[in-house]
Automatic annotation (TrEMBL):
It comes from the Eukaryota. Keywords: Disulfide bond, FAD, Flavoprotein, Oxidoreductase. Its EC number is 1.8.3.2. It comes from Cladonia borealis. This is Sulfhydryl oxidase.
Length: 207
């Protein structure tokens, strides 16, 4: 009959082996390659190909019933819109012009206020985005902003002051761009001087 000491030693060995096995399993599990979560991976979930129908389709979002929220959204959106134009390159490449053109149309489609987006779409159809230069983009943005103001019976904005009102926040190394923005928008106070294209449908890219 085994002694008490032998039984204790046997139990210790069993526990030791179990502990070693447990540690081995955990180590193997941690070191095994895991499947990559594709939700936030760098690989696109689907091929990106933006068609003209996608750019110029109907508004996607629904109506906003809260008038206070709608007004706050509008102020924030216009600040983003005008600041984007103020920071746009003065001599953009064709790719940069296409990017801004697409952004403006998608901005209209995805704007959170559906009824506002639908109205802005009508304005875009009549006054296509002008993206050939920073000054044209800024002056065009002010013009369409005033088109919205007209529809709401609001006071029209003096487009010659758009560069001062919506400061681009340019860094020191971009001071020249900031000066250009203020100079060209003063000249754009008369929107007839920026050659705005008026079209009922089928606006072309560029400005």
């Amino acid at each position: 009959m085994p002694s008490q000491g032998a039984i204790a030693n046997r139990r210790f060995l069993v526990l030791l082996m179990a502990a070693i096995a447990f540690v081995s399993v955990i180590s193997w599990a941690l070191s095994s390659p895991r499947p990559i979560d594709s939700t936030f991976s760098s690989t696109p979930i689907h091929k990106v190909s933006v068609s003209d129908d996608t750019l110029k389709g109907d508004a996607i979002m629904g109506k906003i019933g809260n008038e206070t929220l709608k007004a706050e959204l509008g102020r924030a959106a216009w600040k983003l819109f005008h600041t984007t134009m103020a920071k746009f390159p003065d001599k953009p490449t064709q790719d940069e012009q296409t990017a801004l053109f697409s952004y403006i149309h998608l901005f209209a489609r995805l704007y959170p206020c559906g009824e506002c987006a639908s109205h802005f779409r009508l304005i875009l159809n009549k006054f296509p985005p002008q993206v050939s230069t920073r000054s044209n983009a800024a002056a065009w943005a002010c013009h369409v902003h005033n088109e919205v103001n007209k529809s709401l019976n609001r006071q029209l904005f003096d487009c010659s002051k758009i560069g001062d009102f919506y400061d681009c926040g340019c860094a020191d190394e971009d001071d020249e761009g900031k000066k250009t923005m203020k100079t060209t928008t003063r000249a754009a106070g008369n929107t007839d001087r920026i050659d705005l294209q008026v079209e009922k449908s089928g606006p072309t890219r560029g400005g």
